[in-house]
TrEMBL record:
UniProt GO molecular function: FAD binding; methylenetetrahydrofolate reductase (NADH) activity
Naturally occurring in which organism (per UniProt): Lichenibacterium ramalinae
UniProt xrefs under InterPro entries: FAD-linked_oxidoreductase-like, Mehydrof_redctse-like, MTHF_reductase_bac
Family: Belongs to the methylenetetrahydrofolate reductase family.
Any GO CC annotation of this UniProt entry: cytosol
Pfam families, sorted: MTHFR
Protein name: Methylenetetrahydrofolate reductase
Domain of life: Bacteria
Assigned keywords, A-Z: Amino-acid biosynthesis, FAD, Flavoprotein, Methionine biosynthesis, NAD, Oxidoreductase
Catalytic activity from the UniProt record: (6S)-5-methyl-5,6,7,8-tetrahydrofolate + NAD(+) = (6R)-5,10-methylene-5,6,7,8-tetrahydrofolate + NADH + H(+)
GO biological process: methionine biosynthetic process; tetrahydrofolate interconversion
Class of enzymatic activity (EC top level): oxidoreductase
Essential cofactor(s): FAD
Length: 303
């Protein structure tokens, strides 16, 4: 069946779409069950990889490890473990990396991490620890055959004095061995396009994968955006205004916003997307379907 001219075809033209999903390690048995339901829902979409975050200051060290190790043991997914430099010596961090290596993990998302006092406070490297994210990338590469992804900031990191300084930071991570960057979320696609232009002009050629925040709760997303330096356009706030006590409409608007964003990025030639899932599958699953992705069973039936 072909789609009417005014609608998009279900298979988008050009290179295939690839997605990755980010989860956070659960705090309780109930949250763990919910996470695994989400993983089971999203896994058949055959993501490129799935990543598991590392709590501020290493607070989820065990839980991140356990979640990633379970992904290796019980699924065919390729997990990536996030890791930060905060609050630990090199030796401690190297032990975490060795633990991943021994568990069969081959991909780490290497980050500096937020200052111990939280975003906005001054960052100080841990005595005896890795000094910077680039330093950590180098350390991980020295410990095994890891793929190393890093962060990127289309609106620059709040601590960066300028875009040039920010992109110097990315260049240092690439020189240290990073092979992919995943961006902080953004809602205005022109910010991403301009950032990628700047990065390419600087001679950096690794993939810059857009991080897509599917808005599960607008108020929470806007608060988080303020802390991380991501801007929330007025038009976006306007779309969610008054929907605090109307979850059904909130969800439909969130799906519409994310669909608009990713399909516009597809029009700009983007084919890889990293979804911040907040451990919830429904909206992300729907957006992936709009991108033309199908679960394994349906792919086989259509072949
Ligand atoms: C995809 C993604 C995943 C993330 N996952 C996690 C996670 O699992 N756990 C977690 O705790 N946090 C996570 N974060 C947040 C991240 O830890 C924070 O943004 C942190 O403040 C910076 O770490 P970074 O590695 O992104 O920064 P870096 O890449 O090291 O730095 C970003 C830019 O900030 C500037 N900068 C860095 N340090 C300084 C300094 N001391 N002085 C002046 N400028 C400086 C540089 O210009 C640099 O280019 C994630 C962010 C992204 C985008």
């Amino acid at each position: 069946m072909t789609a009417p001219d005014t609608l998009r075809p279900s298979r988008l033209p050009g290179a295939p779409i690839r997605v990755s999903f980010e989860f956070f390690p659960p705090k309780s048995a109930e949250a763990e069950a919910a996470l695994w339901r989400s993983i089971e829902r999203l896994a058949p979409l055959d993501p490129d990889f799935v990543s598991v975050t590392y709590g501020a200051g290493g607070s989820t060290r065990e839980r991140t490890h356990n979640t990633v190790a379970r992904l290796v043991r019980e699924t065919r997914l390729k997990p990536a473990a996030h890791l930060t430099c905060v609050g630990a010596t090199r030796r401690e961090i190297d032990d975490v990396v060795r633990g991943y290596r021994d568990a069969g993990v081959r991909h780490v998302v290497a980050l500096r991490g937020d200052p111990a006092g939280g975003p906005g406070t001054a960052y100080e490297a841990h005595p005896g620890g890795y000094d910077s994210s680039a330093d950590l990338v180098r350390g991980i590469r020295a410990l095994g055959d890891f793929e190393v992804s890093v962060s990127a900031y289309p609106e620059k990191h709040p601590e960066s004095s300028s875009f040039d300084a920010d992109i110097d930071g990315l260049a240092a991570k690439v020189d240290a061995g990073a092979t992919r960057a995943i961006t902080q979320f953004f809602f205005d696609n022109s910010l991403y396009a301009r950032y990628v232009e700047r990065v390419r002009a600087r001679g950096i050629d690794i993939p810059i994968i857009p991080g897509i925040a599917v808005i599960q709760n607008f108020k929470q997303t806007a608060n988080f955006a303020r802390k991380t330096g991501a801007s929330v356009p007025d038009w976006l706030a306007d779309r969610f205004a008054g929907l605090e006590s109307d979850p059904a409409t909130h969800q439909l608007v969130a799906a519409g916003v994310a669909a608009e964003q990713v399909l516009d990025l597809v029009d700009q030639g983007v084919r890889d997307f990293h979804f911040y899932t907040m451990n919830r599958a429904e909206l992300v699953y729907a957006i992936c379907r709009l991108l033309g992705l199908k679960p394994e069973g349906e792919r086989a039936a259509a072949a």
